[in-house]
Specification:
The chain is of the alpha/beta class. It has one domain: Rhodanese-like domain (Oxidized Rhodanese, domain 1). Strands 1-5-4-2-3 form a five-stranded parallel β-sheet. The protein is globular, with a radius of gyration of 15 Å. InterPro entries: GlpE_sulfurtransferase, Rhodanese-like_dom, Rhodanese-like_dom_sf. It comes from Meiothermus taiwanensis. This is Thiosulfate sulfurtransferase GlpE. Keywords: Transferase.
């Protein structure tokens, strides 16, 4: 049986479990908090850049393509959307923090 003339390969967004964050940070990723200004709180994730989703959608950023990008938001939804925009713009090393900062806090508290 022959394969169809066209095949679509859909790669799921790379997700990073909060439990693996510490070891992933050793790979020197650029951490980007994509929450809107009204939700952003400096210091929620040390060293994170604040680039709201709206700026990523518009391409108003200078994120490097040669380093891993770890996208974060409160629950992992906005960061996943931001990742789709970045992948469409040619970024290949894009990761989404699974469950966002909300899940990271629970893991840190041992829940």
């Amino acid at each position: 049986m022959r394969a169809p003339a066209f095949c679509f390969i859909v790669e799921a967004m790379r997700t990073l479990k909060p439990e693996l964050l510490k070891s992933f940070l050793q790979e020197n990723p650029v951490v980007v908090d994509v929450r809107p200004p009204g939700q952003y709180k400096p210091g929620d994730l040390e060293g994170a850049l604040h680039i709201p989703l709206s700026e990523i959608q518009q391409g108003s950023h200078n994120l490097p393509k040669d380093r891993p990008l770890l996208l974060v938001c409160e629950r992992g939804v906005l960061s996943e959307l931001a990742g789709l925009y970045l992948e469409a713009a040619g970024y290949e090393q894009v990761y989404n923090l699974e469950g966002g900062l909300q899940k990271l806090r629970k893991v840190a508290e041992g829940q």
